[in-house]
Amino acid sequence: MIRLASGSPRRRELLALLGAPFEVVPADVDGRTAGEPALAKAEAVARPGDVTLAADTMIDLDGESIGKPADAADAVAMLSRLAGRTHVVRTDVALVGASRRTLLFGVGSTVTMRPADEQAIRTYVATGEPLDRAGAYAIQGGGGAVVASYAGCYANIVGLPLCHTFFALRKMGVAMPERPEPAFARAFGFVCPAWRLAYAQGRQLRGGAEYDTAGYVFSATPM
After folding, report:
1. Which residue in 56, 71, 74, 92 is the catalytic one?
2. At residue 125, does pLDDT exceed 70?
3. φ and ψ at residue 36, rounded to 5 degrees
4. Most CB atoms closer than 10 Å: which of 13, 84, 103, 165?
5. pLDDT tens by residue, 164-189
């Protein structure tokens, strides 16, 4: 059994695409104080005999780490700071195996935001969607309107790099009924253009590695 150490609906939906049964066991870990938040979450709820998966997504803007906004005003400030600039979306993925073996790695994508439009930002923040999102936007939702383009793994920007997670779970001995690229295409309505690179990286997956998937630039509204 897979234990997902996250209460994130996005991660739950993405993991479900791979078809393996799992239970959601949110970890009570403060990601702002943990040295390795993803690993701390996985270890907090790990159980012998099960494989535990956790992830932590952050925005890197010229060396500044940006997490979730504290409130609506903070969301407006974050989006104004990101506007017209390119940032890295980095997700750390951690697994604790059935025998307590651990695996931790990072995956990066880049996102370029549209130029600042204060009214558009305030209108978007008023929907409430940005308040539980790293960087205060959801590329797959209304936040796509403030994104100009992205490069790399789309699922990573949403919150869980699907191809890398697929191979990581297989490495931990979990058989996955669905392959990530067709499952992603069925769910999102397009083929992630970075899937071949993500597959190549996933096949060589190793602990402690950082995987840059930003090989190409794509429109923010893929068809």
Report:
1. 56
2. yes
3. -125, 85
4. 165
5. 999 999 999 999 999 999 999 999 99
Identify the residue whose tokens are 């959601």: 24
Q: Which two tokens stand for residue 84?
A: 């017209």
Continuous H helices in the chain: 9-16, 37-45, 72-82, 118-126, 154-158, 162-171, 180-188, 195-203
- Those residues with Cβ within 8 angstroms of residue 125's Cβ, 6 or more apart along the chain or in another chain: 72, 75, 76, 79, 131, 136
Q: What are 70-91's pLDDT values in tens digits?
A: 999 999 999 999 999 999 999 9
Query: What does the pLDDT read at residue 223?
Result: 34
CA-CA distance, 142 to 122, in Å (whole number)?
A: 12
DSSP 8-state code for residue 132: G
DSSP string, 201-222: HHHT--TT-EEE--SSEEESS-
Is residue 56 flagged as an active site residue? yes
Residue 35 neighbours by CB under 8 Å, 6+ apart: none
Which two structure tokens, joined as six digits, stand for 150? 């992205």
Structure tokens that stand for 108 in this block: 């990066």
**Would you put residue 178 in left (φ > 0), alpha (ψ -120 to 50) or beta?**
beta
**What is d(CA 109, CA 121) in angstroms, rounded to the nearest whole number?**
22
